[in-house]
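Model the whole thing, not chain by chain.
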Amino acid sequence: MTSAAPAMQCTMELFGMARLAAGRVAVTLAVPRGATLADALAALALACPTLLGKAIAENGAALLPGHVLNLDGRSFVDDLSQPVRPGERILLLSDQAGG
Amino acid sequence: MHGYHGRALVIDLTAGASRYDALDDATLRAFVGGGGLGSYLLYRYCPQGADPLGPWNPLIFVTSPLIGTGLTTTSKFAVVAKSPLTGFIGDSLSSSYLAPELKKLGADAVVILGQAARWSVLCIDDGAVTVRDAAHLLGQDTFETEAAVKRELGPKVRVACIGPAGERLVRYASIATDGGRQAGRTGIGAVMGSKRLKAIAVHGTQRVTLAAPEAIESYAVDLRARSLGQATEKYRVLGTMANVASFNRLGALPTRNFQQATFEQAAAVSGETLHRTHAPKDAHCANCTIGCEKVLTTSDGGAKTSARMEYESLFALGPLCGVGDPNVVVRAARACDALGLDTISTGVTIAWAMECAQRGLLTPQDAGGMRLRFGDGDALLAAIELIARRGEGLGDLLAEGTRQASARVGEGSEAWAMHVKGLEMPGYEPRSLQTMALGLAVSTRGACHNRSSAYEADFSAEVDRLRADDRRGAIAMRTEDFSAVLDSMIWCKFLRKAFTDFWGESARAYEMVTGVPTAPDDLRRAGERINNVKKLFNIREGWTRADDTLPARALEEPLRDGVAAGVRLTRGDLDMMIGSYYHARGWTEEGMVPEGKIGEMGLEGLLAQPSSDRMR
């Protein structure tokens, strides 16, 4: 990834504690082409600093325990080095689903 | 051995007699406590072929080695019987102040056999067993019953009771404690009703010794701190209601009797919204630091009502019945708690009836003038009352649960009777959670999300949740054995991610309590043994390979909406996963437990148990 790369958009959808902490249901982010999920997470932390220490680690680049990412509502991912696709919707939610 | 009393209190209501039966150390170590020990005791005391609602189906309350240690979330008991819904093993766990009181009775379990001559309150004061007339309590709800028994016997007693649903043998009646907490699943409240027990009042003073009390206290402090960390924050702040929005987005929220996997009004009943609109009050189970329970109070112009609300009640009485008004769901949940009904089976059974009405199979004439429609809150509330009182016609039909009700109605309605082995489905859509589909199909207690937490794999990158494969058998076995140990120690499942090493910590805790050197593998084997004894009980009661399946809807209809629209789970997919599960368990291709596995698990002695040990 380089800072000169053209921007693309992705949307982070927030659920559970992340939604409560951010006070928002979803956040649309501009990230450079070639950005990774970790980059998107860092951009989300900049847009919603209240997520730091709640869902995102203080360094802005990792999820805190208890949270997980899902792509477009279909696939869960644990590798944050995976590239973001243009227009992708990234769900940030709890990794616990006990009822 | 520390941590146990080493005996069971056996009460014969027919004979009006009680005795203690010894539980040796090897048995206690093998089955740990709670659901595990209860499964062993059910095999031992339930005569083969016993009528679930007849006198010789034992109703067994079981404690665990961790009760009374101060370790967070461990004030839980198991109650076990042959289920009147499934005809197989029935068990339910509940967190309650009843648990430590039961343990102080001087026994690790209370086995109740026979039938009282008249409606009674069973009083157990240390080892002294008496029965009191309960005629004046008949018809009272669970809140009224518990309060009345405490008024009569004093505030020190702890009470388990049934509501009108249990009195009328509704097949999914629950047992209530602590002001409306329910041991809800598999119809154990009906078993209690069949014994003509309106309530059980318990008071004890006999404490067990602990092998290493100071070490336990130190561990309890550490675990308590971890229980308040990031891993449990969702449960502490939003409770399990938080599942609604995420399940909806993932196409996993059963709606309108599993006809849909998303609900257009999900936002209105989501945990996030209710946190804002209804300001839930936190409630804690006995000796629990997490406090996942959220008490909601109605916010409309009607009479104020409050209810404990969790995901399963919310899903079953809300989206599954097409109801998007949270105030209706609160009233429905409160009614179920008061009447003594399992909210899951109640919601699923009413949703089945709503679909029958949608298809013209249940007309208002059939339903006593009631017009059952998805989304009709008044109809939902009226149906709950009718079921609990077995109101003529519809109430009596629905009180039997989906399996028997659909068999009576016929006309193909079995295809949308959403149960496994007779137990109604919890709020996990099997077509979009295909590891969970396997967990639901093979669970020994029927459609259950607690005895197998296979859904954990679906909510992770470990599997593709929308496709089946033959790795799922090993995963389902792993989650079942894990759950069996959780349910036997007994820890709350919501503590699971607060452990840094569940097996290691559990082994150390067991050793600190009992003084018995315990390795993590000892507990892993206990988990496997417990699931084998449950299966052996079911086989003895007539289980066949055909019982491990899912409702036709889940296997014949693709999902129609949400991100998983078009996704299918075929019979072939499920059969392949079931085969992989039997293989992982070391069972035969037909799912039977071979002699070698019985020997490996050390279960030969149990199978050879003389029938005289089973009372009848």
